[in-house]
Amino acid sequence: MAASKQRDEIEAYLHMLLEVDRYEDYGPNGLQIEGRAGLRRIVSGVTASLALIDAAIADGADAIVVHHGLFWRGQDGRLVGWLGERVRRLMTHGINLYAYHLPLDAHPEFGNNAQLGLRLGLQADARFGKQALGFAAAAGDNTSLPVLAARVQAAVGGRPPLVLPGDGRPLARIGWCTGGAQGYFEAAIAAGVDAFITGEASEPQAHLARETGVAFVACGHHASECFGAPALAAHVAQRFGLEHRSIDIANPA
Ligand SMILES: [Zn+2]
Predict the structure, then answer these.
(1) C-alpha neighbours within 13 Å on the C-beta side of residue 117
(2) Given pLDDT bands bounded at 50, 70 and 90, which one contains residue 5?
(3) Cα(72) to centroid of ligand 1, in Å?
(4) Of 60, 65, 50, residue with least CA distance to 96
(5) What angle do CA 81, 97, 158 make, to 5 degrees?
(6) Closest Cα partner for 66 from 17, 21, 31?
(7) FRET pair for 148, CA 20 to 30 Å: which of 39, 92, 136, 228?
(8) Which has the closest alpha carbon to 253: 228, 224, 227, 230?
(9) How far apart are CA 216 and CA 207, in angstroms?
C-alpha cells in the first residue's frame, strides 16, 4: 500500500470495524490530529495525555491510538494552555492521533467491555442500557461477591476495587460497563444482573445497592479501560504491517 494513503486507509478501516456511525458520542471518533501520511510504528494508550504523547515521541511513533481523545462536547474550541500544548506537540512531531470513545467501549471483540470480560472469564450473552453499551453474562458456578471482587482485582493488575454490597445473594448474572458508567447501574438492575462492575462510583450507587440488593463494584475508570485501545492497535498493526507498543500511563482515578 502506498505510504501516502496509509494514514487515511487506517482511519477508514477503523471507522468500518468499530461502526462509528452507529454511536452518538461526546466527541469526534476517528483521526483527531492529522500527522504524517506513512506509518511504521504505533503506540496505544487510554488517554491522549501529555505524558502519553511524550512517551510516543520518545518511542518514535507515527501514530497514537487512544480511547480518550482531545476533543469533547462543551469545550470552547480554543487551543490554548494544556490542550494547546498537547496539540502542538503532536503536530510538531507529525504524529497522528486516532481516538475512539463509545465505539471502542462497545466493540464485541476489541472493545473495553469485551476485553475486560475476557479477563474476568465472562462471555457476554446480552446487552443493556443506552446505546447497548452494557454487557451481561452468566456468572458461572458458585460465584459470590468476594470471589467476583477478587477476580476483578486480579484482572486490573491488583488494585483493590470499591465494593458496595447488595443483599448477599449468590451471583447468577453479572453486568459490566467500563469507565464512568455508574449511571448504567439502574439499567443493569433492570436487566436482571446480581452484580454490576464499572470504573467509577458516585454517592447514589451505595443506596441503590442497599435498596435493590444488587452489588456494585468500581475498579477504577482508567483500570477498567486499559485493554481496548491496545487490543485494537495490535489488530491494526498486524493488519497493516506496523510495529505496535502499548504504553500504560499510571492513573489511580
Ligand atoms: Zn472512559
Answers:
(1) 29
(2) confident
(3) 12
(4) 65
(5) 90
(6) 31
(7) 228
(8) 224
(9) 10
- For residue 39, what pLDDT band results from cuts at 50, 70 and 90? very high
Question: Around ion ligand 1, which residues have CB less than 5 A away?
Answer: 179, 225
The rounded Å distance from CA 151 to ligand 1 centre is 21
Q: Is the pLDDT of residue 3 over 80?
A: no
Average pLDDT over residues 206-213: 98
- Give the C-alpha separation, 250 to 220, whole Å: 11
Question: In this model, does residue 142 exceed pLDDT 90?
Answer: no
In the reported structure, the alpha carbon of residue 46 is separated from the centroid of ligand 1 by a whole-number distance in angstroms of 8
Distance 44 CA to ligand 1 centre (A): 15
Instruction: Look up residue 82 and give its three cell numbers.
Output: 494544556
**What mean pLDDT comes out for the span 229-253?**
97
**Residue 219's closest CA among 143, 117, 141, 131?**
117
Q: Give me ligand 1 centre to Cα 235, in Å.
A: 21
H-run or E-run covering 245: strand 243-246
| Residue written as grid cell 458458585 | 142
pTM score, whole prediction: 0.95
101 Cα: distance to centroid of ligand 1 (angstroms): 7
C-alpha 112 – ligand 1 centre gap (Å): 9
In angstroms, the CA 187 to CA 193 distance is 9
How many angstroms separate the alpha carbon of residue 42 from the centre of ligand 1? 21
In tens, the pLDDT along 154-177 reads 999 999 999 999 999 999 999 999
